[in-house]
Design a protein that fits this description.
The chain has eight helices and two strands, in the order E-E-H-H-H-H-H-H-H-H. It is mainly α. Strand 1 and strand 2 form a beta hairpin.
Length: 234
């Protein structure tokens, strides 16, 4: 990805000029005449707060100006994010299965194997279908043309914008009602919409439709496997 202005998304050559160590001058965008990327001089907490507030300029800084293919191991980052995503989602599926089924005092070995098999299918097949719908919707509905590199960018946007799943770690330590998972899913969905909008430069309504379709298909897989996420809300 090339550098972008975080305000308007215009392509720029460089973000700053360094005169000496610790002495830099931020460049201005030729299109909007504003500072191209103000997050360069900001603390990481400012960026995290703006990401939680769903500010598009924070996502532009993250995807275009921070994740640079030339200065980082992009493939390694993608695999690490995918592993973390699947690990957190595995705990989500486990919590859903516990909330939707009556726990037996001494389950048999066959029951344990069957439950683990359903969780594995839900985890892998559900997320694969979700990613395929996002990529297909991005190419067709959002009229964004890209190759393998573009598919990786969409996957990166999906994984990074699902950072709200980190709050599932708190459920491992403290006791929360299972309906909290539904709130986390809503936040993840809204973050996915903003990330998809930044990556594709499309309308919010179209990005919401693509993201909702992907999430609905993922929920459908859980419903077929008798892991009902909606039961936890009712």
């Amino acid at each position: 990805m090339d550098f972008r202005c975080v305000q308007c998304g215009f392509h720029i050559q460089t973000l700053y000029i360094q005169y000496s160590p610790g002495n830099i001058r931020l460049m201005k965008c030729e299109n909007c005449k504003a500072v191209a990327d103000e997050y360069i001089e900001c603390e990481i907490m400012i960026l995290l707060i703006d990401l939680i507030l769903h500010k598009e300029k924070a996502y532009r800084h993250l995807f275009y100006n921070m994740f640079n293919r030339e200065t980082m191991n992009f493939e390694g980052l993608l695999w690490k994010l995918a592993f973390s995503f699947l690990l957190l989602d595995a705990y989500r599926v486990l919590t859903l299965s516990r909330g939707g089924e009556a726990c037996s005092s001494s389950p048999s070995f066959g029951t344990i194997v069957w439950s683990c098999g359903k969780m594995l299918v839900d985890l892998l097949f559900g997320n694969i279908m979700c990613a395929c719908v996002l990529i297909f919707g991005t190419r067709c509905l959002l009229n964004a043309s890209f190759g393998i590199s573009g598919c990786k960018d969409v996957l990166l946007a999906l994984l990074v914008s699902s950072y709200f799943k980190i709050f599932l770690i708190a459920m491992m330590v403290w006791e929360f009602p299972s309906s909290v998972l539904f709130i986390v899913d809503i936040f993840v969905l809204s973050s996915n919409v903003v990330a998809l909008k930044v990556i594709t430069d499309s309308d919010t309504a179209k990005c919401l439709g693509v993201s909702l379709s992907a999430l609905a298909l993922k929920f459908l897989v859980s419903w077929v496997l008798n892991i009902h996420p909606l039961k936890l809300v009712i």
